[in-house]
Amino acid sequence: MTYILAIDQGTTSTRAMLFDDQFAIAGTGQQEFPQHFPQSGWVEHDPADLWTTTLETCRAALKAAGVGIDAVTAIGITNQRETTLVWDRATGVPVHNAIVWQDRRTAPLCSSLRDAGFEDTVTAQTGLLLDPYFSGTKLAWILDNVEGARARAEAGDLAFGTVDSWLIWNLTGGAAHVTDATNAARTMLYDIRSGAWSQEICARLNIPMQMLPEVRDCASAFGDTMPELFGRAVPILGVAGDQQAACVGQACFQPGMMKSTYGTGCFALLNTGSDPVRSNNRLLTTIAYQLDGQTTYALEGSIFVAGAVVQWLRDGLGLIDDAAQTAGLAGQADPGQEVILVPAFTGLGAPYWNAESRGAVFGLTRNSGPAEMARAALESVGFQTRDLLEAMQADWSGLGETALRVDGGMTASDWTMQFLSDILGAPVERPRVLETTAMGAAWLAGHKAGIYPGMEEFAARWAVDARFDPAMPEDMRAARYATWKRAVGATISFAG
Ligand SMILES: Nc1ncnc2c1ncn2[C@@H]1O[C@H](COP(=O)(O)OP(=O)(O)O)[C@@H](O)[C@H]1O
Ligand SMILES: O=P(O)(O)OC[C@H](O)CO
Description:
Glycerol binds at residues 81-82, 133, 242-243. By secondary structure, this protein is of the alpha+beta class.
């Protein structure tokens, strides 16, 4: 038996999974690591935590499976995207903590660049918006704020990378400074059409281009691990950002296919094929995957609060002890009350991108209670997904009748998935294998290694666990969505 080791380095935990040659999971390792919030709106990770949890979870997965390293053919890596690291090329020592994708410290820099009319250039080249979410302004912040960093960068002594690059650097003992096209596409420094770093954007942000990693296809030879780490050198053959890896793991290989991942937040990616579609509705244009030099593009919508609204019911309001209780509560809600929760706890993401909004509840009566709040919380996830779908439909005519493929922790809630289908007016499919992100990374590496089948056969193996079809009458769907839109409008206008 041969295996692929998939590393999934996420925002709150690192996981490693060993997949056998039939895609069955033979062993898993998982570790959480500390989040650092040095100031309001700032989020950092210790780069050493990202690396050591990776190493330890890989070893734990091998141990759990009882598999020796000789049976591991290759490694695939998937990772939290946009998170920004800078380290010394000679010593491998980072010059600063990793600045996490959620960090808003560069909001003033982004505003001034926007005011100067630079967003058009950014969107035209990178497909992104000029937002602190992406790596570019975080890297500029490090160069501007860490003493001596700029001079060292200009002298060629510092390397920049997203988390994949940092892990590969460490796995290969500093031999490889590389990334893949999907991670590059999230930096706001990469021209997704020409497939090259943007000289114009780097110059504007004052970023020396010798800091940037070499960009490769998602299934490529990224480097070999140092033999002393696992007992043998193992090639790293697959890399993709986590949402893109989920798109691959969900086998969304045809234009018009779409996946949506419901974890803490929600990220929906729609495959638009070989043409990058420019959004008129504030969605992101990004790279879904790049294989054999061929780039496949996607439209992406990001929602900041999905499962997090359930965590708020539990930890903030104390209405439930466990996420799974929400469905039972929601089912008891009074059908006559229309309570709407807009969970803009940290502003609104796509398609609104309103950083100033905060959460709001509408339609409370004297009879509203935990059941109505639970229902409103779960429904908010469906309403927000409909917002994304509406934007995608407006941007691109190729969005067909295909079902939405879902994954992530919140898809365990049948109630939420049924409402999602009802409010979208479209089928929703939950796959049998929910580990789509790790499986996507494993497929990239295993396909390159020649132990996994090609795209078509891999796609044919995708199997449904549950399908949810719309059951809500059309007039009710329209009325309920119109109420949601009014609630969002009021939330945004309240923020001023
Ligand atoms: N049965 C459930 N009903 C509703 N929400 C759930 C349920 N199970 C898990 N969740 C939510 O799913 C999220 C966890 O999903 P996960 O994919 O592990 O997230 P992440 O990768 O972002 O940490 C949590 O926010 C949790 O509240
Ligand atoms: O680590 P996750 O699963 O929260 O995903 C984070 C995204 O990649 C951020 O863009």
